[in-house]
Design goal:
Number of strands: 0
Strand content: under 5%
Largest sheet: none
Helix content: over 70%
Distance between the termini: 32 Å
Structural class: mainly alpha
Oligomer: single chain
Number of helices: 16
Length: 443
């Protein structure tokens, strides 16, 4: 592969193109995901569609259940039809589903819209992570994934301002109409986003992959160029459990469960819980902005730190700090101090979960990467379903403060599981290095 300055510059432009398009797609993903939590205080206040606190928690879980389905299917479908087609389909799906929410006349129809949106949201994220991993500069994969995930939190910030500027004068339905706008981005994504190199190689389209890699000086993934058998996509899933891999796989899944319970529980209920503590709607939405600003900072910091010290180690430390921050939110503090705690909690919480994905993505074989990330995300979605429901039940029982405690305990559990995974990885690497040294000495 040529390494001329011209080709290197072209390779950088391709990487920027891929990351830029995926960033915009994930921005819209974040807007659609966070918009429900941002408009929820307004919906509860005016009793929109007749929803109660308990039903609001159920509706939040509908979206995350859809994300569970989408994430579980994403890896397998992407490994079959391609990352690009799946990303385009996911953006179209969650945009159209928001239109269903906007025109809904009952809780059931609204719930259907949120469930369908969740399928698109859940399918997009692991696919986008897999896509940017293909084009990330060598040694900068975790940083690139962290950069991608800043878009999710930029979407969360955007959702707060949509709720603040649009809901009051136009009503909550207008916010969901805004979430239909990403449909205009679908043709752009279909036209300019290149296909994943890993997918091309895994599908036996080696010539096409080599031409693309050579044209832009991108490293070609090392994999067999023969087209896989029809059942190969299920073999990718089985590979996650072969040998001693099943222990590591389960640790990642359990860590992801606790992390996503925490992420989506807080994302859904933070404005409502803060308003129940006596804050005005504007102040409650400020917490959403600070939380997501912290998420953006955290992604960049965690990405750099993970490339240097290892994603599992950083994830474990971040979860420990997250648990402390979330627990402090249950303690009455001066407003300025609360702002700082919410910001720092956002820094650590969101990037802790993302570094689980980075760990799985970096450690997976290219042909198996989408399946590994998709199933880690998908199994974690059970926590994402449980988190909003749990918050709704606690709020309905007038035990909102216990919600913060429950979410903090979820952070502690994720710290333990990803910490054990990090120790096992270190031990396995040390053992392998020792064996390699023995082989070299023997020769």
């Amino acid at each position: 592969m040529s390494s001329s300055p011209v080709l290197s510059a072209r390779g950088s432009r391709l990487a920027l193109l891929v990351v830029g398009l995926c960033w915009l797609a994930v921005l819209f993903d974040g807007l659609d995901m966070f918009i429900y939590g941002s408009v929820l205080p307004h919906m509860l206040e005016e009793k929109a569609l007749g929803i109660t606190s308990g039903q609001a928690g159920d509706l939040g879980s509908y979206a995350t259940f859809g994300m569970l389905v989408g994430a579980l299917a994403a890896g397998t479908v992407a490994d079959r039809i391609g990352r690009k087609k799946l990303m385009v389909s996911c953006v179209a799906l969650f945009s159209l589903a928001s239109g269903i929410c906007a025109i809904s006349g009952s809780v059931a129809v609204f719930g259907l819209g949120r469930t369908l949106a969740g399928v698109g949201l859940g399918g997009l994220l692991p696919t986008a992570i897999s896509m940017v991993s293909d084009y990330a500069p060598r040694g900068r994969a975790a940083l690139t994934i962290g950069l991608l995930m800043t878009a999710h939190h930029a979407g969360g910030i955007l959702s707060a301002y949509v709720a603040l500027w649009i809901v009051e004068p136009l009503g909550w339905r207008a916010a969901f109409w805004v979430c239909v706008v990403p449909l205009l981005f679908v043709p752009v994504l279909a036209r300019f986003l290149p296909e994943s190199l890993s997918f091309l190689v895994a599908q036996g389209r080696g010539e096409e992959a080599r031409a693309l890699a050579g044209r832009y000086d991108v490293e070609l993934p090392a994999a067999a160029t023969d087209k896989p058998a029809a059942g190969a996509r299920w073999a990718n899933l089985l590979n996650l459990f072969r040998g001693g891999e099943w222990v590591q796989t389960l640790l990642y899944w359990l860590a992801s469960f606790g992390g996503l319970l925490l992420v989506y529980g807080v994302a859904t209920w933070l404005p409502t819980l803060m308003r129940s503590e006596g804050y005005e709607l504007g102040s409650a939405l400020t917490f959403v902005v600070l939380f997501n600003l912290g998420g953006i900072v955290g992604m960049l910091v965690a990405g750099r730190a993970s490339d240097r010290f290892g994603a599992p180690r950083i994830s474990a430390i971040w979860f420990a700090l997250t648990a402390g921050g979330v627990f402090l939110l249950s303690v009455h503090m001066p407003l300025a101090v609360t702002f700082v705690v919410v910001f720092l909690t956002g820094v650590f919480l969101n990037s802790a979960q993302t570094m689980i994905y980075a760990t799985v993505s970096i450690g997976s074989a290219p042909a198996n990467r989408a399946t590994a990330v998709g199933w880690t995300s998908g199994m974690g979605r059970f926590g994402a379903v449980f988190g909003p429901w749990l918050g709704g039940q606690l709020l309905a029982a007038n035990k909102g403060d216990w919600g913060f405690t429950a979410f903090a305990l979820a952070g502690v559990s994720s710290m333990v599981f990803i910490g054990i995974a990090a120790l096992r990885t270190t031990r396995r690497t040390t053992t392998t290095d020792t064996q390699d040294q023995n082989l070299i000495s023997a020769h």
